[in-house]
Each structure stands twice: as C-alpha cells, then as structure tokens.
Specification:
It is built from 17 helices and 15 strands. The chain is α+β, with helices and mostly antiparallel strands. The strands form 4 sheets. Strands 1, 2, 3, 4, 5 and 15 form a 6-stranded antiparallel beta sheet that branches. It has a 4-stranded mixed beta sheet with strand order 8-9-14-13. A 3-stranded mixed beta sheet has the order 10-12-11. A hairpin with a 2-residue loop joins β1 and β2.
Length: 483
C-alpha cells in the first residue's frame, strides 16, 4: 500500500476529482462520488487526464496533513486493476481502440492483484489491519483512531536529484552540475573559449552572435563562477531559427509562445523581425532561451546518451523551472525589469527566494528543481512540503490556461499562506504596530499582483485574513480596522 498526499480537488468535464502525490511525488487521481465516497477512475479517464495535464500542467491543492493510504488502481472493463508502470505504459502508447483489445491481456497480467470492488473505502478493508470499519475520508486527520487520514510515520524526505546512469541502457542523466566531470574530459572553460565557439558556429547569424556575446558578458559579470561547460558544448551545433507564428506554435506546442528551445534539436526558435533592444520583450525572450542552452544538454558522447537538465526523476515541475529561468534571465540585465515571463509564478518565486538565506539564483544553474524544493523545506523547517506548494503554483498556471478545468479559489490558499508566511517572518516582528504590519501585507500583495491578469481572480482579502492570524500569534493587536 502506498501513501498519498492530497493536493487538490478539481472539476474536469463536469466530474469532480482529487489529485494526489505519492511518496515519490508521482501523480494519481480518484473520482469524487455524489455520496461523498471515492472511486477509482477508468483507464480512459487516467489517460485523458494525464494527456491533458502533460500538455498543460495540472491544478492541485496542498494540505500538510491529509496523507492517505491506498492501493492505486484503475477500472478496466468494470474490474479494478492495480496500477503498475507496465499497465500504464501499455495504455499510454496505445490508441483507445487498441486499449479495448488489450483489456484481456492486461487483466491476465495483473490477475493476482485484481479486486472486484470499485470504491476505495471498500477495497482498503482488505489492506488495512483494522477490525473496525474504515472511517470516512476527511480533510484533517483524526488521531484518536486509525484510518485513511492518519499515518504514524512521517512523510518521506525528498530525494534530491543529482545524477543517474545505466551502463546497460547507455545513458547518463545529470541534474547537478557537480557531476559534469562524469561526461566531460575537461574541468572548466573560460568565457573567451565560449565566445570563440560562438564565432566558429556557422549556423548562427551575425545578429544572434552579437547577442550571444552580449549575453556572455552579462553572464560572467553577474556570475563570475558560473558553470559554462554545457553552454560551450551546445554552442558547437546550436542553431537560432527565425520563423513565423505558425511554425513557432508547431515547435513550441503553445499559442502563447514568443520563443522556444528544443533541446533534442539544439535549436532556438524565435519569431521573425524581432528587434532585440535592451528593455524590450524580445530582448528578454532571447536571453531566456540562451539560458536554456546554459542549463540544458542532450548529446551522444562515447555512444552514451547524456542529458543535463533541471527537472529530475524525484521531482519535475516545468513551471518552477521556467519561472526560475525567467528570474535568472532578468537578473542578468543592468536595469530593473519587473515585466517577466510566467508573471504570477515568477512573482511568487522571486518573493520566496528573496526571503531565503540558503538559496540564490546561481543555484538554479548549478542544481536541480528538487534541490530548490529541499532548500525551501530546509528554510521553512518542513518535511517534504515544498513540492506540494510548487505543484500547486503550477496548477494555478494550468487553471488559468485550460478552460476544461474548474477550481475553487480556496484551493489556492495554501500558496498564499506559504508565501505570506515567508514574507511576514522576514518583515514583521512583535514590536511592530498592526498598521505597520498591514503596510507589509500591502507591499507583499503589490509584489505578487504586479502585472498579473485579472482573470486569475486572486483572493486578495485572504492575505489580510492570514495577516490577522499571524499578528495574533505575535501578540500584535489586530482590532484596528484596515484602511
């Protein structure tokens, strides 16, 4: 039996679902029934939801204390079948017609683990060692009796992604730059060597060569000890392709894209006729894509597939990676830039990083996304909670971009509480007046909401509600009305 953290409730195509993260931050869904019980979803629902949320990241809710034990299953032909990687991969690479033909084969493969019941509560009676009936699933655990919501053991610690290899499968995956020595036969590279590599690359036009020189100067001036070997290797074959909107959509798989880096091709695609001037959006776009070349690699070296990336096996979160990239991008400029890609999500991360004393933007280049999550946990003294918040931030992005998903605004309160708690701890103390504390909250909201589309429908008032509870803990009188 696995243990799952409930991270949100959402509506998709008229049906209500919960999404969970297991001990290794992998996703699983259950359907909410009208009578309040939970049911396994069908294999078709699993694939439908998975494909939807692969293309656009999934919406979630975070709860620190709603761990549940369950056996992950899906319904195939009216029978609940234990979900395994073999089962999932078999279906994910098939059409729906092929799925129907495969049902008997899959059921035979999983025959020893089939249970004919479909509701989670009934199914778990066979797995829980309790004589009393399984209690109703609730949002908060009842520690007075055993049940699905209470687990005596603490959650697993997040395993930070660093390095993964297989001689048999001939691959090496690097998530932490300290492990580049395992694939490169040289220790470092200078910025002059990088520029020389740019000059020799005939696939890059003079316009983009000049921008790359400018990028290198900004990079080394701001981060003199930055790791350059991945960028150096990419510059051997990098192409920058100017294209029309339709072609960019085809490569980026997004109607909203202004540029993209395709790592498997080592190509940057940008719209034609951009004027790359400091302070403009195109200037930020091209630096953002150059950063992907700094942080991401995909090569064949000595007959071994080598991949360097920020997303790992233990935790992968696209929007977090993109927001960190965006923040790193504007940090290279010699002017202040608040208008930034992934605006709301970047605003959240900027506030959190500015509050932290154990993480800087240079760590984005040197370490994985799971390293960032671990540092958030370390700073906030949490046990593997940051991944849930990061998933929820990604979820809010998805909710905004996907009309098929409907989520109550209250589901996002954990984000607001998390960011506010970090900001208040840094900027509010017990000697302050309530009026001064309100000013701090005003500043926080201004930072969060800068240039954020109104359609996000952020519940601003919740920040003040959290402020009141925070002040009460510090002994600050909150009776004074806010102006």
């Amino acid at each position: 039996m696995k243990y799952y953290q409930k991270v949100f409730q959402f509506t998709y195509k008229g049906k209500s679902y919960n999404m969970y993260l297991d001990n290794h931050n992998k996703h699983f869904f259950l359907r909410n029934n009208v009578d309040g019980s939970l049911s396994y979803i069908t294999i078709e629902e699993l694939i439908d939801l998975s494909l939807c949320f692969i293309n656009v990241p999934l919406v979630m809710n975070a709860r620190k204390d709603s761990k549940k034990g369950m056996v992950p299953k899906v319904i195939i032909g009216g029978v609940s079948v234990t979900l395994s990687l073999t089962l999932l991969s078999t279906f994910m690479f098939s059409t729906f017609n092929e799925m129907r033909k495969s049902e008997e084969r899959i059921r035979a493969f999983e025959e020893s683990r089939i249970n004919s019941t479909q509701t989670v509560e009934e199914d778990l009676k066979d797995y829980l060692s309790y004589d009393e009936p399984t209690p109703e699933i609730t949002e908060k655990p009842d520690e007075s009796k055993p049940g699905l919501d209470f687990i005596k053991t603490p959650p697993d610690e997040l395993v930070v992604d660093t390095y993964l290899e297989s001689d048999w499968l001939s691959y090496k995956f690097i998530y932490d730059m300290e492990y580049l020595d395992k694939v490169f036969d040289y220790d470092n590279v200078s910025i002059d060597q990088v520029k020389s590599r740019i000059q020799k690359n005939n696939h890059i036009s003079e316009k983009f060569k000049n921008l790359l020189y400018e990028y290198c100067d900004s990079l080394i001036n701001k981060y003199p000890n930055i790791e350059l070997r991945v960028l150096y290797e990419n510059l051997k074959t990098l192409e920058v392709v100017e294209c029309d909107k339709l072609e960019l959509v085809r490569h980026s798989l997004s109607m909203d894209s202004y540029g993209c880096y395709v790592r498997s091709e080592n190509k940057i695609y940008v719209l034609k006729d951009y004027d790359y001037v400091k302070g403009t959006w195109p200037y930020q776009v091209i630096f953002h894509e150059f950063n992907h070349c700094l942080r991401t690699g995909d090569w064949i070296i000595n007959d071994t597939r080598v991949k360097v990336q920020v997303e790992g096996q233990n935790f992968s979160n696209t929007i977090t990676a993109e927001a960190l990239n965006s923040l790193f991008t504007v940090s290279l400029f010699d002017y202040d830039e608040l208008d930034i890609a992934y605006q709301l999500q970047s605003n959240y991360h900027k506030i959190m990083i500015e509050c932290m004393d154990n993480y800087t933007l240079e760590d984005y280049v040197n370490h994985s996304v799971s390293y960032y999550a671990s540092k958030l946990d370390e700073f906030n003294q949490d046990d593997n909670y940051a991944t849930t918040i990061l998933e929820l931030i990604q979820a809010q992005y998805t909710d905004y971009h996907n009309d098929s998903i409907s989520v109550s605004q209250e589901e996002y309160y954990p984000i607001y509480d998390y960011v506010a708690d970090m900001y208040f701890r840094k900027n509010i103390n017990s000697n302050m007046s309530y009026s001064d504390a309100v000013n701090v909250a005003d500043q926080l909201i201004t930072k969060i909401m800068y240039d954020v589309p109104q359609d996000y429908n952020i519940d601003i008032n919740h920040f003040y509600e959290y402020l009141d509870s925070y002040c009460e803990k510090l002994g600050i009188e909150t009776s004074k009305a806010r102006s």
